[in-house]
Design a protein that fits this description.
Chain lengths: 113, 115
């Protein structure tokens, strides 16, 4: 397996634009997580899915953030409209079970100017 | 909900020095514990994990961690660091048999190893 695949690796966008981050989890993993990493706050869980169903989105900072998982092999995290304070590295991760280790993608470095 | 505290934001060590990074969590039930490492420009990789059994866990690259249940701690150690250990280290906890959010991370500790 190629591991968790995220795209794009880097994204620079202007404030107010829509941003879509993509993730392909490891095949057979039931759980998918979206994290945001900043210097000040470390890794924050935004939302996680179990079998494509969102379980907990309490970490999503605002209504501008939304996430979907239309099937077992694809998920998106969308920010609309984007703001400079959204600049961070966004990681997608997947795990086989809820309590097992998660495998992380390479991350998307988002810069909103 | 559980939380994780990592005591040091940035640690600077000379090569061959010993390392201990603190990690404490707040949850009274059964937990699975993890340490992840993120080398510059790379993604997070699992360093070691504790599920059950021997509380002293050995991971890759000479790292080990000890689970002390009474102290709610899972500190990471290495007897002699190398320059290549320069990285971000993050502790994470998942509460078992609960509805709590899985895989909650601490804020991370940046380790800089100097020659």
């Amino acid at each position: 397996d190629a591991g968790v695949i995220q795209s794009p690796r880097h994204e620079v966008t202007e404030m107010g634009q829509e941003v879509t981050l993509r993730c392909k989890p490891i095949s057979g993993h039931d759980y998918l997580f979206w994290y945001r990493q900043t210097m000040m706050r470390g890794l924050e869980l935004l939302i996680y899915f179990n079998n494509n169903v969102p379980i907990d989105d309490s970490g999503m900072p605002e209504d501008r953030f939304s996430a979907k998982m239309p099937n077992a092999s694809f998920s998106t995290l969308k920010i609309q409209p984007s703001e400079p304070r959204d600049s961070a590295v966004y990681f997608c991760a997947s795990s086989y079970k809820r309590y097992t280790e998660a495998f992380f993608g390479q991350g998307t470095r988002l810069t909103v100017v | 909900a559980q939380s994780v505290s990592q005591h040091n934001h940035h640690v600077i060590l000379s090569e061959a020095a010993s390392l201990e990074l603190g990690c404490n969590y707040s949850y009274g039930g059964t937990v699975n514990l993890f340490w992840y490492v993120q080398y510059p420009g790379q993604h997070l990789q699992l360093l070691l994990k504790y599920f059950s059994g021997d509380p002293l866990v050995k991971g890759i690259k000479g790292f080990e961690a000890e689970f002390i249940k009474s102290k709610f701690s899972f500190n990471l150690r290495k007897p002699s660091v190398q320059w290549s250990d320069t990285a971000e280290y993050s502790c994470a906890v998942t509460a078992i048999n609960s509805g709590n959010t899985p895989l909650v991370f601490g804020k991370g500790t940046r380790l800089s190893v100097i020659a």
